[in-house]
Amino acid sequence: MNYQIHTLTLALVVSISGIAHAQDDDEKKAACEAILCLSSGTRPPECAPSLSRYFSISFRKWYDTARARQNFLNLCPIVSQDATMATRNTALANGAGRCEAASLNATLLTGDENTNYISNVLPDYCASTISNGYSDINDKTPVYLGEPMRGGYWVEQGHLAVEQKAYEARMNARQVQ
């Protein structure tokens, strides 16, 4: 009887470790996929599960969310073998989803009660994401249109021509007034 209990316990431990190992492998795979998908200018449908897992990591305070997301990305085995990749993950965790034009326009709005403007300086987390050797998002990087004190703002590269015309029309209308 004692032998059967030990055998059953051993079998359960082996099964549970096999399940835990499989779950660890799934997490590692999702982390590596998330890194690839976040580093690309395009996001094919195959990215949906890993990005869903990444963006589902959320805490009340932003720095807790960023730290937890970075810890998730660090599950990818290559991160511990490449310092550039570790730096990349820090930039991704701090800036993923925050380097689009709409987000930049919201977060870079500064000024006082008399004057508001949107800064034309790209935040460090965006600059390091874009300049990292593992990124392929240069053609997706927002562009600053205009001048900060003259109503300038960030636009997506694909909308630049249309936004340029709209900006010029606003500047011409200001000169007429």
Order of helices and strands: HHHHHEEHEEH
Total helices: the number is: 7
Number of domains: 2
Strand line-up across the major sheet: 1-2
Distance between the termini: 96 Å
Report on this structure.
The protein has 177 residues and is mainly alpha-helical. The protein has 2 domains: 1-96, no CATH class; 98-177, no CATH class. It contains 7 helices and 4 strands, in the order αααααββαββα. It has helices at residues 2-38, 48-55, 62-73, 83-95, 101-107, 124-131, 160-176; strands at 109-111, 116-118, 143-145, 153-155. The strands form 2 sheets. Strands 1-2 form a two-stranded antiparallel ribbon. Strands 3-4 form a two-stranded antiparallel ribbon. β1 and β2 (116-118) form a beta hairpin. The radius of gyration is 23 Å and the shape is elongated. The N and C termini lie far apart (96 Å). Mean pLDDT is 78; it is low at 1-21.
What is the secondary structure topology, with strand pairs?
Blueprint: H1 2-38, H2 48-55, H3 62-73, H4 83-95, H5 101-107, E1 109-111, E2 116-118, H6 124-131, E3 143-145, E4 153-155, H7 160-176
Antiparallel strand pairs: 1-2, 3-4
Helix pairs in contact: 1-2, 3-4, 4-6
